[in-house]
Amino acid sequence: MADALKGLPFSPYQFDFVHQRSLSCAIPSTSWHQMVNELVRVTRPGGIIELVEPDSIFQNAGPMSTQLQNWIMAACKKCGIDPTEGTQIETYLRVAGLINVKAETITLPVGQWGGRLGSTTATNIRAACLAMKPLVLQHISINAQEYDGLLEDMFKECEQRRSCFIIYVAYGQRPYR
Fold it and tell me: Which of 56, 117, 151, 172 could serve as 98's disulfide partner, Cβ 3.0–4.6 Å?
């Protein structure tokens, strides 16, 4: 693991497979091309790069989910980050010159209504929302209790509304040339 925005501490052509995920709330909008190019640099010819990023909105979202997502989006935008950039990962791989690029979207249930997968998705989303909490509190005029309360209400709402979360997966091959 390393920070691709600072340059990866690896020599060119070192890896057969490079995987990056869940950084759409961390990569500045102006840095996506640079970041993908750095991943390409360390991938050997014929190697594979895979990117996995979440959508920035829930499907079947209610007002609680929408409010929390709005807070996170607003806080990110104040830092020059656009979480919707994750929906463009296929394009970034193509622009970086990868071949055999493939992309898919995967819809995941959020909550116990979705069985084990839904419970796991809810656990991952909770962890992501808690990781975003300091940024939101720093940039949005709310307190920790408001954030925590809305987060709990959001998960109840996801159960009631049978909300889903979409992730985008894209992968491509570094050309042999």
Answer: 172
Q: pLDDT, tens digit, for every residue of 110-147?
A: 999 999 999 999 999 999 999 999 999 999 999 999 99
Q: pLDDT tens across 1-43, in order?
A: 778 789 999 999 999 999 999 999 999 999 999 999 999 999 9
Which helix (H) or strand (E) segment holds residue 44: the answer is: strand 43-59
Query: 43 with 4: CB under 8 angstroms?
Result: no
**Letter string b/e over residues 54-77, b meaning 16 or more CB atoms within 10 A of that residue's CB:** bbbebbebbebbebbbebbbebbe
Show me where the domains of the chain are located.
12-173
Q: In this structure, which topology does domain 12-173 adopt according to CATH?
A: Rossmann fold (3.40.50)
Quick check: helix, strand or coil at residue 58?
strand
CA–CA separation, 138 and 154 (whole Å): 21
Residue 134 pairs with which residues in a beta bridge?
none
| CA-based max dimension of the chain | 55
In this prediction the pTM is 0.91
